Amino acid sequence: MAKKIEILDSTLRDGAQGEGISYSVQDKLHICEALDELGVTYIEAGNPGSNPKDMEFFQEIKKLPLKHAKVCAFGATRRKDTTCAEDSNIQSLLAAGTETVVIFGKSWTFQVTDILNATLEENLKMIEETCAYFKAQGRSVIYDAEHFFTAFVEDKDYAFKTLKAAVDGGAKVICLCETKGGFMIDECRKAVSEVVKEFGSKVTVGIHTHNDCGLAVANSLVAVSEGAAHVQGVLLGFGERTGNACLSTIIPDLQIKMGYECIPPQNMKTLTAICNKVSEITNVSMNPQTPFVGKSAFAHKAGMHIDAVLKNPRAYEHIPPETVGNSRVFLMSEVAGRSTIIEKIQKFAPSLKKTDEIVDKIIKRMKELEFEGYQFEGADGSFELLVRKQLGQYQPFFKLHYYQTNGSNPRPEEGVCCCAQLKVEVDGVIEITAGEGDGPVNALDIALRKALEKFYPLVAQIRLVDFKVRVIDGKSATAAKVRVIIESTDGNASWTTVGVSADLIEASWIALCDSFEYKLIKDIEKHYKKIII
User: Fold this and answer.
1) Is the pLDDT assigned to residue 333 strictly greater than 70?
2) Residue 75 CB contacts under 8 Å (≥ 6 apart), including other chains
3) Angle 227-228-229 (CA atoms, 0-180°, nearest 5)?
4) Residue 280: enclosing H or E segment and its boundaries?
5) pTM of the complete model
6) Which residues lie across from 162 on neighbouring strands?
């Protein structure tokens, strides 16, 4: 039977210290639901003594029926020269009403004497008495030993005394915090090994790492190898400075690669979806190259690689992507081979063979467009339209007669006002509309949607979620071509389209039209079960 590793997710507490991160109470509740669905052991949800929002959250979370995770309140040991009963922060922790509390205390003598302005002996009492107080109140205590690794190097004896104080006070877990993120793997290994040897038979030893040297995941894995059975981190790895240990990497590393159990095995296939959900709630874009769960984690571009993966995925994939709920992606580019093109095309023409002449035409057209600046590896919608046009599976849904945009800024405090006017034709019917938006592209989007809704009501579902612009040839300065990539969604699926032009508005219009046409083609095929011809 696999050894179980406790997972404490600190997205809501340590993750909230990341630059640009801010949660509403509702955000925190939704993230809790997602983490509970994944099956983590603990959710460190915030410090109720630090702000009213966190206290409100702890009242609301009681109404949420979590199936697996235990919500924890986080706070410091009591202040010096006071008692736990008199310390307002301690009482706020108690009032939060969580079954488990996470208490952090000082391990490093410098922090004790120069930051807390306390004596070393007083600090030991603060740790032990705080842990004992919460245990007496029926709470389970996780003790976070802040700056433990620095303390281990500078004064190991005192560092161990702080851990003993927590254990004597009744802590269930002593978590070693690599607070500054600056320690190497061998240093981490040595410290954890000695702590496990000294305390491992009495309590669970944990690890909490930061990523300042890019080693947060590695140090967490090493700690588990040395006997730690409790790992703290943030699901997507964000946090203060360069971030925390990334649990979306640690969990599958430990469970799939190293044979431990971190979450219920059946939940592993939900990992990618839950990471995407948390990314959406937090408004933090997930790096596409994030191990296991990123969009590019199982993406293949080189023709020979793709050909090999089509024969046997083991050729270039360390695990089946479905194991973590991800999917395999073949990227369209000038280095893609015929196998890649065929794999994509067969979605629309299942009988097409690698040797058919039309494949050469598609590849030729794709390379012509890429020479002009197009890039299809991140524009699945536009690539599909390109293929359909070559296969004769495309007919335009509307004809553009003209569009124009203009903007003015009569009142700077109100921002720029942009308007777009356009004339389109659908089945011989002319529609002239206008739209007003935050910018010219937004205004065009609104105007086009308004024009087409009376003919195609489903376009009302389309929402633009991302807009990227890249100058293709910076040496040409203002005459350079630009590539515009638009990501769209209808609430069920998402797709990406691309446009290229020396004019930013025209490039945006091309990508926008592709987005609308892709949606319409998919909806017609879905509702009428036929290929557009």
Assistant:
1) no
2) 47, 48, 49, 89, 90, 92, 93, 101, 102, 103, 104
3) 110
4) helix 271-282
5) 0.76
6) none
